[in-house]
Each structure stands twice: as C-alpha cells, then as structure tokens.
Design goal:
64 residues; mainly alpha; 2 domains; 4 helices; DUF2273 domain-containing protein; DUF2273; transmembrane helix; membrane; transmembrane
Length: 64
C-alpha cells in the first residue's frame, strides 16, 4: 500500500492527465467531436458555477 501511495505522490499529474485523456478519447469515439466539445464546455461552465458558489459561501448558507 505504501508503494501505491509513493507512486501516486510522484506521478499524480500524469495519472490524472492520462485518465482524463482516456475519458476524452472514449467520448470522442462514442459521441463525435462536436458533442464531446459541448460536454466539455458545459462541464467547464458547471465547474465555474460551482467554484463561484463555493467562494461566495452561497452553498454553505443554505444548509440547515
């Protein structure tokens, strides 16, 4: 288990990048370029909205 932790610590960026590239390749094969581009754009918009809501504290204020 310690070996996996050291590999993850040393190669975190390439592992995440390889996984993201694999997912993008699967999306391109399954849906095509423009649908994959739309998915990427909408995902980026969602991340931006989520980041904004987290920074402004809006999500934390809504919990009871």
């Amino acid at each position: 288990m310690d070996a996996l932790k050291s590999i993850w610590a040393a190669y975190k960026g390439p592992i995440i990048g390889g996984g993201a590239g694999f997912v993008i390749a699967l999306l391109l094969i399954q849906f095509g370029f423009f649908k994959t581009l739309l998915i990427a754009i909408l995902s980026a918009v969602g991340v931006g909205i989520g980041t904004y809501l987290q920074r402004t504290g809006y999500l934390g204020n809504q919990r009871n």
